[in-house]
Amino acid sequence: MATSIPYVRDFDPQYGTLVSVSDRVRRLTANNPGPFTAWGTNVYVVGRGQVDIIDPGPNTDEHFEVLIRAIGEERVGRVFVTHQHSDHSPMAHRLASHFGCQTYGFGPAVCQETLDGADMEAANDVDFMPDICVQDEQLFKSDGWSILALHTPGHTSNHVCYAVPEDNGLMCADHIMGWATSVVIPPDGDMGDYMHSLHKIMDRKFAVLWPGHGAGISDPDPFIRAYIAHRNNRNAQILGLLKAGQSQIKAMVRILYAETDPRLHPAASLSVLAHIIHMVKTDLVVCDGAPGLDSTFCLS
Ligand SMILES: [Zn+2]
Predict the structure, then answer these.
(1) Which helix (H) or strand (E) segment is 78 a member of?
(2) Is the Cβ–Cβ distance between 169 and 208 less than 8 Å?
(3) Where along the chain do its domains lie?
(4) pLDDT, tens digit, for every residue of 40-84?
(5) Gap from CA of 129 to ligand 1 centroid (Å)
(6) Is CATH 1.10.8 the classification given to domain 232-299?
(7) What is the DSSP-derived secondary structure letter of residue 167?
């Protein structure tokens, strides 16, 4: 039975405008729409007057000018990055250098390698390295609000979500997205880690999630439950296909993602691979050599 995720797809990006999403948090959507970014990347500005920036977005002159104009006379104290994908991190050092502050992130990904055939628009910003490496549960205090870093590996190994405890809100970037499921990208992305990170965020019972793309999620608990159920369901579907003798990822994707935009099939292939790698690690499935997009799989 198909799992129904209560997607939130009604969103007006209001490009170039800071939109208040709470008393402490404002959102500016970068004008970089696409199949992986939906309406574009959400840049979050936390605080008033003295502010912190979460995920400054792509490094283009146009976006830089928009950010500088929107921030205006406010002072930027820190630039945080959730992960090193090219729609989130490349503007970080340029913006921090403009405001004379530092960049913060988890540090380099465990694995920078890209799989052959993994043709992704949301490519790695492989050169990104934060000035300051944040730790899981590290708290950054400001006047009237704070930012709590939560390490959420899965989408990438170095993915961090940032909570604003005073709002009980979480900037969850690409860990949880309102408009679609997230992509787990092996070899750096890991499905076992991803499921653990979904539970980690669900257990904290946030009142609102602010994703890296699209609208906020105002009822996180049923949403994350459906996200987890969707993954479990996908796992069962893949096991079913393997049981029926299907051994190739490309053929599985054509069946499992028949109603998905074919431009997203390469990303879908990576998600299926991520599921199967987890099955190999847990001895459910065997593979001819190291698991890859063109490998042949069967149940063990
Ligand atoms: Zn990403």
Answers:
(1) strand 75-80
(2) yes
(3) 19-229, 232-299
(4) 999 999 999 999 999 999 999 999 999 999 999 999 999 999 999
(5) 16
(6) no
(7) G
Q: Which residues contact 256 (CB under 8 A, 6 or more apart)?
A: 234, 237, 238, 241, 268, 272
- Report residues near ion ligand 1: CB below 5 Å: 85, 174
CATH number for region 19-229:
3.60.15.10
Which pair of tokens denotes residue 129? 């390295």
How many angstroms is it from 275 CA to the middle of ligand 1?
A: 18
Please tell me the pTM assigned to this model. 0.93
Q: For the segment 241-291, what is each residue's pLDDT rounded down to a tens digit? A: 999 999 999 999 999 999 988 888 988 899 999 999 999 999 999 998 899
3-class DSSP state of 140: strand
Report the range of poorest mean pLDDT among 1-5, 59-63, 84-88, 157-161.
1-5
Integer Rg of the chain from CA: 19
Distance 185 CA to ligand 1 centre (A): 9
